[in-house]
Each structure stands twice: as C-alpha cells, then as structure tokens.
Amino acid sequence: MTKNYVGLKSEKGEPLGAKIELLKNAAHALLHEVSTLGIPREVDVRSGVDLYEEIRRYEVRLIQQALLHAGGNQVRAARLLNVNATTLNSKIKRFNIPTGGELNGSNTNGDL
C-alpha cells in the first residue's frame, strides 16, 4: 500500500512528503541490514559436524554482508573481502548468492 504524502505539512507549515519518504527509505535499509545479520548458530561438534558445510555457510554470510555494504557492487565487495573480483564472482555463482539487484530491488548487481 503506497500512501501519498503530497500536501502534508508540519505544525510549522513545512512540507513533509520528501522527509517522510527519506525516513521510509532509511528504515527500509536498516531493516534489510538487520535481517542479513542473522544470529550465529551454535555448532555441537560432539554429534559430528561437516566442516566444509560450516565453512561454506560462513563464507556465504561474509559475501552477503560485503555485497550489502558495497551496494551490490562486486568489485567494491571484493576489495572489502581482500579477494580478486573474479574470485568473488566465481563464489557468488557457485553458492548462488543474490547480488545487489536481488538484495535491494534494483538492477545494480555489478556483474563482471
């Protein structure tokens, strides 16, 4: 549901439409970032663990966080992770990780 804020004014008579939209966008970005943090799960090694699967999960989370901070730009995300952009792109494809366009609804995935 989209609400139209055109004509809405503060008590001082200032237009609020643009300010409300900025606030909505900031809240949306914050909620998205919080949702990507996730809660690290405890791994009980007493019952056995697949080390490679745990490493893959951790790697995917790191890549997702770097992509989020880089606005979906893979070259900037690769710099944050201190890897080559081609290496990052390969991992994104191998692990089927959503890039910028899928993360924030735009089409700025920064593919190489």
Question: Which key terms come to mind for this protein?
Answer:
single chain; 112 residues; mainly alpha; Arc Repressor Mutant, subunit A; 2 domains; 5 helices; 0% strand; elongated; disordered C terminus
Structure in words:
- It contains 5 helices and no strands.
- Helix 3 (74-81) packs across helix 4.
- It is elongated.
- It has helices at 17-37, 51-69, 74-81, 85-95, 100-104.
- The chain has 2 domains: 9-38; 48-112, Arc Repressor Mutant, subunit A (Orthogonal Bundle).
- The chain is mainly alpha-helical and 112 residues long.
- Mean pLDDT is 79; it is low at 105-112.
- The longest helix is centred in the N-terminal third of the chain and has 21 residues, at 17-37.
Describe what is shown at a glance.
The chain is mainly alpha-helical and 112 residues long. The chain is 57% helix and 0% strand.
Total helices: the number is 5
The CATH topology of the largest domain: Arc Repressor Mutant, subunit A
Task: Count the domains.
Answer: 2
Strand content: under 5%
Going by helix content, strand content and strand pairing, the class is mainly alpha
* CATH architecture annotation name of the largest domain: Orthogonal Bundle
Enumerate the spans where pLDDT stays under 50 for 5 or more consecutive residues.
Answer: 105-112
* CATH class wording of the largest domain: Mainly Alpha
Provide the gyration radius in Å.
Answer: 19 Å
In whole angstroms, how far apart are the ends? 36 Å
| Secondary-structure element series | HHHHH
Give a quick account of the main beta sheet: strands, pairing sense, barrel closure. none
**Helix amount:** 55-70%
Could you tell me the number of beta strands?
0
Work out the oligomeric state of the chains in this entry.
single chain
User: Averaging pLDDT over every residue, what do you get?
Assistant: 79
